[in-house]
Structure formats: structure tokens, C-alpha cells
Amino acid sequence: MNTERGQPMTITLTQEERAQHPVTHQQRVIIENYHGEKLVGILHDTGSKELVIVCHGFQSWKERIPMVNLAAALEKEGISAFRFDFAGNGDSEGSFHYGNYRREADDLRAVIQHFRMEKRVITAITGHSKGGNVVLLYASKFNDVPIVVNMSGRFNLERGIEGRLGKDFLQRIKETGFIDVWNKRGKFEYRVTEESLMDRLSTDTHAACILIHPDCRVLTVHGSMDRIVPVEDAMEFAKFIPNHKLHIIEGADHEYTSCQDELASVVVDFVRTHSHQDRDMSEQLSSCTRVDGSIQSRL
Fold it and tell me: What span, in angstroms and rounded, lies between the C-alpha atoms of 273 and 278?
């Protein structure tokens, strides 16, 4: 559009107008973690400096439906999003390790610091399944993100192991030092070492929950028909996280197979509502980070 004198006219849109008409660019971004491994992700850039990080779950990656759909839903609201693969998963470098919760929290830390160097404001971190545990662990360690969304995370990390490793797994792994996991087609999937098993068992979810700063707003979403992580785990998060909202999606399974729209709507509404209220919370929370930045396990 030109003025009568032939000079270009600058049109400034409000944030609300930008949300209604987002112009999104998807870009492959590579970020190095603290072990020199390259983490690969997709940035949905709407032009907004506010950014939501989307984390996948166990043996998953950034291209699984919950991560792709959530990033797309945020994009439609004019909110930039970044979905990436943890080390040893998807397109990222590194070896896959069972457990690995703390190291994945450190991967998330590297991603957040990368975007902060680019003057982005990290509005929220979201995680599905194991990724839900990782974002909660991150929040308890660093206290510098105002909104956390836990989708189908597991509260009791002692549960669910026997289903993958078989009965008497502790005794067998102490005898041999490892257990190999094979899929139903007889194909090798991954090796669980005694060290990696102990990493999972020593990750104290209860301690992480109570260490999350009261000003950090946390949403837990869970499906009522989740057969992988029981909905009771969601109730446990609600007991111990200080500033918490629980939303159960009726009929949803672990992957929200037939409930993707409802999942996206719940998460985006929570992020949008509280990001407007807490624009300066990131700076406030950063000043509250503990010196050691760690969690003491009580398991």
C-alpha cells in the first residue's frame, strides 16, 4: 500500500491483530548442548518474541502428533513455538539412554539459554509424558520460566518399569549389569543399564514438585483413559505443586489420539491467559534461582 506521494506506508498491527493474522516461518534450528551434542528442532516463528518450548516423551521425537499439533495451535494464536529432539532421540546427536531425566532437563536448559541469547522471552515450557516430568524437573531446578505445562507425566517413577523390563528386573539387572528391551516383532530397541535404571529410580518427583516456585503457574493435563500412565498420577501432581491447575480430558488416551483439538485448546488457553498476566515473571523468577540449582533425591 502506498501513500499519495508514492512513499510506502508502515502499518503497525496490535498484538491481537497479529494473533488473528500470524505470518509463520518454520525454520530448522540446531543447538549444542553441554556435552557437545547437536540438538535439532523446528522453530515456528510468528514474529513474536514470546516463545513456548515443546518437549517430547520417552522414545519419541518432535514429529509426533501431540508436539506438532500443539506447536501449530500456538502458531495460530501468534505465539512462536519450538519443538526439538532431546539428545539420542529423533534427529539429534547422542545415544539414547533409559532414565536420563536430569540430562534432558539440561538439554532443555541449553535450548532456553540459546533463545534468550537471541532476546526471546520464554513464556512457557510444555512436555508430553516423560517430557512432562522433564519440564517440572527443570522448573524446580532453575525457577526462571513463568508457565509450565505437564501433559500426561508420570508421578510415581517406580511404576511402569516392570511392563518394559519384566518381573524381577532389579535382581536381573544386578546380576548381568543390563537388560535388553525388544519390541513385539523381536527387534532390539534399547539397553537398560543398572546406572540408567538407578537414574530413573533416584529422580524424586515429589521433591521436584514442592520445590517449584509458588509464582510459577503449572497446568497438568491428563486423559481419563490413559493406559500407560494412570490418571491417578495427575492427582498426585495436584497435591504437591503450589500453583497448580488440573484438567482431565474425558476419553483421552496417552497420546490424545482422538482429542488433539481439545488438548491444544486447553494448553493454548492456559498459556495465553497467564502469559498476559505474567510478562515480567521470567525476570522475577530468575532472581530466585538457588545457587546450587539442584534437587536432592530422597529415594
Answer: 9
Higher pLDDT, 7 or 94: 94
Q: Which residues, 6 or more positions from 143, have their beta carbon under 8 angstroms from its beta carbon?
A: 212, 213, 216, 285, 286, 288, 289, 290
CB contact burial 105-130 (16+ within 10 A = b; e otherwise): bbbbbbbbebbeeeebbbbbbbbbbb
DSSP-assigned letters across all residues of 217-278: EEEEEEETT-SSS-THHHHHHHHH-SSEEEEEETT--TT-TT-HHHHHHHHHHHHHHHHHH-
pTM of the complete model: 0.86
> Rounded to an integer, what distance in angstroms lies between the CA atom of residue 84 and that of residue 128?
12
> Residues for the chain: how many in total?
299
**β-pair type (147-151, 178-182):** unpaired
Walk me through the domains of the chain, giving residue ranges and CATH numbers.
23-157+204-273 (3.40.50.1820), 159-202 (no CATH)
Q: Among 162, 239, 228, 230, which residue's Cα sits nearest to residue 206?
A: 239
Determine the residue type at 105: A
What are the tens digits of pLDDT across the range 75-115?
999 999 999 999 999 999 999 999 999 999 999 999 999 99
Report DSSP state, residue 51: E
